[in-house]
Design a protein that fits this description.
about 350 residues, Dehydroquinate synthase-like, alpha domain, about 20% strand, alpha/beta, three-stranded antiparallel beta sheet, about 45% helix, Rossmann fold, binds nicotinamide-adenine-dinucleotide, 2 domains, 14 helices, seven-stranded mixed beta sheet, 12 strands
């Protein structure tokens, strides 16, 4: 069974079998696949059907040097405006593919086959792409919708447990932002073997995609409501700058827990909801301590790129299923975040 969700009438997210998705979206066009070495090794049967470019895996490759190497390969291969680029992989591959496709020759059509949980529920959805510059994550990028995203939960069977957990961090974020029923569903169904259960994973992916699609439909370029999806990310990005011990999803999990505590201390989130957030994250297997000096993390929070006029936009959970965005002056942020030092 497959389900198709449309975004901005520009992009179709296909949740179902990868073969059916490829049949639906790839007709007789010239296709060039961009993927990483892990996906090429595990899914060579899919990658080898098309001309392809392999990049290294890991956040260290999400930079302009990789982008430049891909441009050079595309020129060598004679790619032109009629070529369809398909990124097959996790968030790193799809972010890079979206950026390359929307800039090479001022824009080619592109699509994704999303192979990680984090990619299927978040990174591949919504048309944001980008690469890292120096120490700044996703600092350069574009808004450009892929023609299609194919998400087949069978890919998750080969994903290492740590990457599955990382994806669940974003799913929990999505449920706190706007879907209390999804939160309850996770509370009831999470276990170390749930990731191999196609029905559970399809429900989790579909609900997350629907929620994100709805938000992106209302605010494609993140000028308003879409900012709620940054819940937990101010702290997560600061942690990622201070230490490489955590991957993105793990840092988001710590960020979600900490912002829930901040929101509770401000009298917004109830103690019960704060505890439910901590216990769902712990049940998934996250360690919720900040694995770096709090002083360093707070200093990085100050340099968050979502700042304007010396104010920082902070997303605060009000209850499970609802969040608010507050513009806070730095000193107020520092005061509210000082509970993290305790
Ligand atoms: N564009 C957005 O809106 C958005 C949103 C959230 C995150 N992101 C970005 O996404 C990136 C993280 O994405 P990610 O967590 O998917 O990481 P990733 O792309 O690095 O993938 C994680 C690892 O799993 C491997 N892998 C991928 N699919 C696999 C499979 N099916 N089986 C076995 N191994 C597999 C990859 O090779 C990689 O080593 C970050 O750079 C983050 O900034 C972007």
């Amino acid at each position: 069974m497959s389900t198709v969700i449309s975004i901005k009438n520009k992009s179709e997210v296909f949740v179902g079998r990868v073969e059916d998705g490829l049949k639906r979206f790839v007709n007789n066009r010239r296709v060039i696949v961009i993927t990483d070495a892990n996906i090429d090794r595990l899914y060579h049967n899919i990658v080898s059907r098309y001309e392809h470019i392999i990049i290294g895996h890991g956040e260290g490759n999400k930079n302009l040097l990789t982008v430049q190497n891909i441009y050079a390969r595309l020129i060598e291969m004679g790619a032109d405006r009629s070529t369809l680029l398909i990124g097959i992989g996790g968030g790193i591959v799809t972010d890079i593919t979206g950026f390359v496709a929307s800039t090479y020759m001022r824009g080619l059509d592109f699509g994704y086959v999303s192979t990680t949980l984090l990619g299927q529920v978040d990174a591949s959805i919504g048309g944001k792409n980008g690469v890292n510059i120096i120490n700044y994550k996703n600092m350069v990028g574009t808004f450009a919708q892929p023609l299609f995203v194919i998400s087949d939960v069978e890919f998750l069977r080969t994903l290492p447990p740590r990457e599955l957990r990382a994806g669940m961090g974003e799913v929990v974020k999505m449920s706190i932002v706007g879907d209390a029923e999804l939160f309850e569903f996770i509370e009831q169904n999470i276990s170390h073997d749930c990731y191999a259960n196609t029905d559970i994973m399809q429900r989790i992916v579909l609900d997350s995609v629907r929620l994100k699609a709805d938000i992106v439909d209302r605010d494609e370029c993140e000028k308003g409501i879409r900012r709620v999806l940054n819940l937990g990310h101010t702290i997560a990005h600061a942690i990622e700058k201070c230490t490489r011990k955590l991957n993105h999803g793990e840092a988001v999990a710590v960020g979600l827990s900490k912002i829930a505590h901040v929101s509770h201390s401000l009298g917004i989130l109830t103690e019960e909801d704060m505890q439910r957030i901590d216990s769902i994250l712990e049940k998934i297997g996250f360690v919720l301590d900040i694995p770096a000096s709090i002083i360093d993390v707070l200093r990085e929070v100050r340099y968050d790129k979502k700042k304007s006029d010396n104010k920082l936009r902070i997303v605060l959970p009000e209850k499970i299923g609802s969040c608010r965005i507050e513009e806070m002056p730095f000193d107020e942020v520092e005061r509210s975040f000082s509970i993290l030092k305790e």
